[in-house]
Amino acid sequence: MSTPPNTAVQVVIGAGSIGQAIARRTGAGKHVLLADSNETTLQEARTALEDAGHTVTTQRVDVSDRASVHALARAAADLGDVVQVVSTAGVSPVQAPAEAVLAVDVYGTAVVLEEFGKVIAPGGAGVHISSMAGHMPRRWTPGRRTRWPSPRSRSCSRCRSSHPTRCRTPAPPTPSPSSQPPARAGRRRPLG
């Protein structure tokens, strides 16, 4: 099957539930190039999206490997005008060791941005979606001491000093509407 050269292409990297939801919602009328490191997930996502009426092509990719991402970018450009690039690929500290988290979440994101920056159509857009998993505490292991930040190590937003209890410094007064500077020309004023 040949694709017309003026086809709009949406690239979704990461065929999990977030990637599938994005492709389902924003892929209408576009050729969706779905990429993932897991072949089983990739084929299940392809079936689900094709059943929903989308035109889908799949390709296995490892975002921590520049050659793999480069091949994906070339494949996307061969399908048509790359108008959207969505990357949902990522691993959390609970899923993988620190080296893999850095390789996928940090280096992989940079490689995707660099490689697709070379092929994206004028006016195209790219977005990288991540989760709060990067802020999750490490897994607790019996026998290992976990160092949590001390409440004394943080400074108070009111008085800028360090204290472990609730700050008793009065909050600065809230400016009244009459003491606020007048709105600049061209800016809309709030209603009410």
TrEMBL record:
<dbReference type="Pfam" id="PF00106">
    <property type="entry name" value="adh_short"/>
</dbReference>
<protein>
    <submittedName>
        <fullName>SDR family NAD(P)-dependent oxidoreductase</fullName>
    </submittedName>
</protein>
<feature type="compositionally biased region" description="Basic residues">
    <location>
        <begin position="155"/>
        <end position="166"/>
    </location>
</feature>
<feature type="compositionally biased region" description="Pro residues">
    <location>
        <begin position="170"/>
        <end position="180"/>
    </location>
</feature>
<feature type="region of interest" description="Disordered">
    <location>
        <begin position="134"/>
        <end position="192"/>
    </location>
</feature>
<keyword id="KW-0560">Oxidoreductase</keyword>
<dbReference type="InterPro" id="IPR036291">
    <property type="entry name" value="NAD(P)-bd_dom_sf"/>
</dbReference>
<dbReference type="InterPro" id="IPR002347">
    <property type="entry name" value="SDR_fam"/>
</dbReference>
<comment type="similarity">
    <text>Belongs to the short-chain dehydrogenases/reductases (SDR) family.</text>
</comment>
<feature type="compositionally biased region" description="Basic residues">
    <location>
        <begin position="136"/>
        <end position="147"/>
    </location>
</feature>
